[in-house]
Amino acid sequence: MSRALYAAALAAVAMAALLAAACGSPGEGGVAGSTSPSVVAETSFLADIAQNVAGTRLVVSSVLPVGGDPHSFDPTPKDAAKVAKADAVIINTPGFEPPVDDLIAGAGGKDLLVIDASAGLPDAKADPHFWLDPVSMLTYVENIRAGLVAIDPAGEQEYTASAAAYESKLRDLDAWIAAQVAVIPQGRRLLVTNHESFGRFAARYGFTVVGTILPSAESEAAPSAEGLAGLVKAINATGAPAIFLETGNAPDLAEQLARETGIKVVTDLYTHSVGPDAPSYIAMMQWNVAHIVEALK
Amino acid sequence: MIAWLTEPFSFAFMQRALIASIIVGIVCAIIGCYIVLRSMAFLGDALAHAILPGVAVAYLIGANLLAGALVAGVLVAIGISFVSRAGTIKEDTAIGIFFAAALALGVVLISTMGSYAVDLTHVLFGNVLGVTSADLWITAGLAVVVLGLVLLLYKRLLVVSFDPILGRTLGLNIHWLRTGLFLMLAATIVVALRTVGVALVAAMLVTPPAAAYLLTRRLPVMMLVSAVIGVVSSVFGLYASYYLDISTGGAIVLIATVIFVLAFLFAPRDGIVWRARRRAAAPRG
Predict the structure, then answer these.
(1) Cα–Cα distance between B93 and B193 in angstroms, integer?
(2) Do B117 and A217 count as a contact with CB atoms less than 8 A apart?
């Protein structure tokens, strides 16, 4: 027994030494000494949209890292500290990103304001990928503006002005996408994607979602043989020209489908995070539309 | 140095993470001794998947997800105990069958929802950094019950686990005690999953008891050593995750693994280093 404890103590000391050697400086939230409210957003594109509304009054940072896979996000204490120190946190919709919901419930302060960016939009449970339709983002902008005014009433004028300016950019984006899509012949406006994320985009711009590789958003649900066979049939029947993968998707199943049907595989659409080629929400949408139009026209 | 030690716990969420991971570390490490000694190491992971149908049904009817998970966990535990009672089907085989069946049932249920399905198990699984006061109370209450039962039924569970024939001659109801043990394991695992998430639970049930088993063969001592390893891993894991900015559950699991590796190498009797030295010394001695 004493030897066992001795061994455990030895292990503890070894770990302590290792830690002391490896430790860097502790994480700082970046709000110390600042008087402006601290606002964080669930994802990088939400942070970008919110930053456009916030203007120069405050800096909005993202809880999820840029490019991180939202389905495998495991927060660190620094992420939790961001939420703990925040006055407001902007989320896409409750239940969309469970680890962030957990941080809000467990780490968030009593006065933390949770801004549900999609509040007022229909059927969040059926498909929460609102942001692939820029017109829905007008609602996001209004919800974010109202939230920022609630925690910082003195900034109301600036927030309202910035929101109006960004809304006109969103309308421009919508018009630009519609013009781009017009190049694609009606019969070729067909989308095959990795998981069910493009429904709102398809509805807005007149596309048909032929099928998805993964049957649902349940990351553990593997596609069934029958499901894949059905997808092959649907691709052959509709003549869908391309299959679109989001950044981080494993390409094996898509390539299998490509061998089976001759369909073209387009990778690296930015749907859940901004990225190096598309550093803002608007750039993300432009990147995606450019790739979709290129593949289908 | 003192500031370095106290700084992480200036955050309330870190304090709750510490308490939660210590409670889970102790309870899982202790009941994990039964799991490791009965070769059921797969149980934690299996239950994490097997609760899916319960969660799906709860979601469909708008009930509490944890309650749904507990019902599913209890049913699976009873099923495992029933199928393996005669000994023809081994426990780990029964676990495999029920886990696969329950997971499939869950996937089928979700596919009938016909809409974008949220990632249900991930909604249920907690995160060490997201522990609420309510989570803490539930976990602490469960810990008291489970540790009380382990103390109360210690002798009987021991006999049933390792010498069922003796148990039968002593007139113990083997089947009910076994089912009771499985129910206790299932309830603990489900609640711990809700509090700290799947990676931490799966590791805490197996790694500390396995390391302890290398250091002692007496069950009470093994439980104690296992609990100490669980606590040490939790505390050091929280510091590592804070100062290195890494996933907290991951850090705790890795530190428990380091302790296991040290025990594997240097355990007084079973460590492979000493064994090698004894072998090298044997011909001359």
Answers:
(1) 23
(2) yes
> Does the beta-carbon distance from A5 to B258 stay under 8 Å?
no
| Chain B residue whose CA is closest to A75 | B247
Pair A64, A70: CB distance under 8 Å: yes
Q: What's the pLDDT tens digit per position in B106-159? A: 888 877 765 545 567 677 888 899 999 999 999 999 999 999 999 999 888 888
Size of interface A-B (CB pairs under 8 A): 168
**What gap in Å lies between CA A234 and CA A213, rounded to an integer?**
12
Q: What is the ipTM of this complex?
A: 0.77
Q: What residues 143-202 of chain B have any CB closer than 8 A to a CB of chain A?
A: none
Range of the domain at A72: 39-177
B229 in contact with chain A, both atoms CB, cutoff 8 A: yes
Q: Could you tell me if A291 and A167 lie in one domain? A: no
- Inter-chain CB proximity B225 and A5 less than 8 Å: yes
Least Cα separation, residue B127 to chain A (angstroms)? 7
Cβ contact A105–B225 (<8 Å): no
Q: How confident is the model at residue A20 (pLDDT cuts 50, 70, 90)?
A: very low
> Could you give the domains of chain B?
2-278 (1.10.3470.10)
Q: What is the nearest CA distance from A250 to chain B, expressed in angstroms?
A: 19
Instruction: Give the C-alpha distances (Å, rounded to integers) separating A24 from A14, A19, B1, B228.
Output: 18, 9, 14, 27
Starting from the edge strand earliest in sequence, which strands make up the sheet with A60-62, in order?
A60-62, A39-41, A88-91, A113-116
Length of chain B: 285
Domain count of the fold of chain A: 2
Q: What is the pLDDT of residues B220-277, one digit of tens each?
A: 999 999 999 999 999 999 999 999 999 999 999 999 999 999 999 998 888 888 888 8
Among B2, B6, B118, the strongest candidate for a mutation testing the A interface, having the largest count of A CBs within 10 A, is B118
Do A44 and A166 have their domain in common?
A: yes
Question: B130 and A99: CB-CB below 8 Å?
Answer: yes
Q: Test B8 with A26 for CB contact under 8 angstroms.
A: yes
> A58-72, A187-201, B194-208: which has the minimum mean pLDDT?
A58-72
Q: Is residue A89 within 8 Å of residue A159, measured between CB atoms?
A: no
CA A207, A212, A216, A217 dihedral sign is: negative
- Which residue is associated with the tokens 């993964």? A214
Last residue of one domain, picked from the residues A114, A148, A177:
A177
The contacts of residue B102 (CB under 8 Å, 6+ apart) are B49, B50, B51, B52, B53, B72, B76
pLDDT in tens, A82-96: 999 999 999 999 888
Please name the residues between 64 and 83 in chain B that touch chain A, using a CB distance below 8 Å: none
The rounded distance, in Å, linking the Cα atoms of A165 and A203 is 26
Say whether both A86 and A165 belong to one domain: yes
